[in-house]
Specification:
Length: about 350
């Protein structure tokens, strides 16, 4: 495949802004969802518009959960074609889709990303574990074997060899797919490592549902949900250099002049450590396609195949330049897209 032009990494910020808009006619593919996937989809949409006879798709953000809900609103030109998602579609999403007549959904995994913990480039350096983050942000922690309201004020209260810096964390809001991964791979993992999960279940007379308390966060202003995209998180860190933000790897890699990244479990996040499975907080990235719109919305299947081509999603493509870890099973996904394979039941 030869391209007339490809969006450069330097033009990504422009692409993300230019692509989002309102379609004048329904000859454009319409996409909504994850702020993590937004820059990737924007790169592809711009290149697709430049290198095919189809209009540039409309790409909007709003969060993974919001995008999947929009996908499930129904079938027809007044509904979107694709939902971008940084977490896997849920059973409740699929049930909502089915209720509204969206029965055939194509799941497309296009690569991997990591969740990183970054602070002001001029500030203290950090080496974290999931247990540290749970001890810092959880509503309840163990002190002398008893569950108590979290008393920790500084990171050095969490672990003596961490900097004596006030705890202040800017984490993704609950509508973001990044938050789902943060909850599971950081908070829940840290809760188990700290023995808090076991204590919560014991306090509930063995009721394992009490483990949900692992995700309960303190409400004293130490943990702040960010409902916008990563640019808002970056602005918060810039305004308060004590703050530590939760970002996607690719966003951090494009802001290394402003941010420094912490290790997690002794591993520095990078394309290489994620590809090898060494970095503990990584996740697959998806988009979901409404199959009923293929053949109805011009360019829909062509966009999906363009996105998943070696030239775009492969290890030497522009998405990898932006920080995507290419999927080693890309060829299998390409075949599934060509065959329009739809999802079966979730495992």
């Amino acid at each position: 495949m030869k391209f007339k032009s490809l969006v450069s990494v330097a033009a990504i910020a422009v692409a993300a802004t230019a692509v989002a808009g309102v379609a004048q006619a329904r000859d454009q593919v319409q996409i909504a969802g994850s702020s993590t996937v937004l820059p990737y989809a924007s790169i592809v949409a711009e290149a697709f518009g430049e290198n095919t006879d189809f209009p540039t798709p409309v790409v909007e953000s709003g969060g993974s959960g919001a995008g999947r809900k929009k996908l499930c609103e129904g079938v027809g030109e007044n509904t979107i074609d694709i939902a971008n998602s940084s977490s896997r579609i849920s059973k409740s999403d699929i049930e909502l889709c089915a209720k509204n007549g969206v029965t055939d959904i194509m799941e497309v995994r296009f690569g991997y990303d990591g969740i990183v913990f970054a602070s002001d480039i001029k500030g203290n350096k950090f080496e974290f574990t999931p247990a540290d983050w749970h001890s810092a942000l959880a509503a309840q922690v163990l002190v002398d074997g008893k569950l108590v309201a979290n008393p920790n004020k500084k990171w050095s209260d969490v672990r003596a060899d961490l900097p004596a810096q006030d705890i202040l964390a800017f984490i993704p809001g609950t509508k973001h797919g990044t938050r789902e991964v943060f909850d599971e791979k950081v908070l829940h993992a840290g809760c188990k490592a700290n023995g808090v999960e076991e204590a919560l279940i014991a306090a509930a007379n063995g009721d394992k549902a009490a483990a949900k308390g692992c995700m309960a966060l303190r409400t004293d202003g130490v943990s702040i949900d960010i409902d916008g995209d990563y640019t808002e998180t970056l602005a918060r860190v810039a305004a308060n250099q004590q703050g530590i933000g939760v970002f996607g790897l690719s966003f951090y890699q494009n802001n290394t002049d402003k941010l420094q990244v912490a290790t997690m479990g002794g591993v520095l996040p990078s394309v290489e450590t994620i590809a090898k499975g060494e970095y503990p907080v990584s996740r697959p990235l998806y988009f979901y396609v409404k199959k009923a719109h293929i053949g109805v919305i011009p360019g829909l299947k062509e966009y999906v195949e363009f996105f998943m081509s070696d030239d775009i999603a492969g290890p030497n493509g522009p998405l990898a330049q932006y920080g995507l870890v290419s999927d080693p099973e890309l060829a299998a996904t390409q075949k599934a897209v060509a065959d329009e394979v739809v999802m079966g039941p979730l495992n």
